[in-house]
Specification:
It is built from 12 helices and 4 strands; from the N terminus they run H-H-H-H-H-E-H-H-H-H-E-E-E-H-H-H. The strands form 2 sheets. It has a two-stranded parallel sheet with strand order 1-4. It has a two-stranded antiparallel ribbon with strand order 2-3. It is mostly helical.
Length: about 260
Amino acid sequence: MCEKWTMSQIKQVTLTLKQLLKQQKVTYKDIAAHLELSEANIKRVFASHSFSLSRLEQICNFINLSLSDLFVLSEKRQQQLTELTLEQEQELIDNPKLLLVAVCVRDSWSFEEIINHYDIDKFECIRLMAKLDKIKLIQLLPDNNYKLLIAQDFRWVKHGPLEKFMEKEVLNRFMASKFDEEDSFRFYLRGRYSQSSIDIIQRKLNQITNEAAILNQEDAPLPLDKRKHMGLLFAMRPWEPSLFEQYRRHSETKD
């Protein structure tokens, strides 16, 4: 690594890379095979944070990530939450306006953009942002500025308040659209895949998720009228339409 970097920065880059590998289900064994090294050697490199830039770039290339993207993610994730607590999620669900402002600050809206775009006055917005500061989603700064303390690609608590809210209030309405507007896209594909192919598909979906988070961060400095509010949904699970399922022979185990 660059000699100008501090050990804490090197550790943060390593931690970010390990998180990305975990999300994409890439193991040390996979990396070792790709780089034609022993698994023990790869484990030692990660444990000691002794990456050369060329080695780091090789690992990034393996998961379709550039070095610059890794460094951007590492900087953004430093001191950022990647998952909320149940209490934090419940605070948001219990107060719809608080949830709204939380979504806005996650997408880097300014204080003025929030009160100009939504029916929230200046004093109410200050109170809501103070609440987000109290539950440690942001650090409130002078002049109604803030520092975001939550990662762009944070994960919901499994079966938690946010996931239940999304399933009940958002996903059904989101999927009810005909997706015929400009910039809309919907594609459904089914098939029977080997486990290795499923692992590849999951890894690529995670790569797209990471890239979308990076692009959202890169676009954050643009004024609000230059950014379009988009919803992205990635989904995959073992499933067969009931139309087909009813014709299965009883001897075949159901998914």
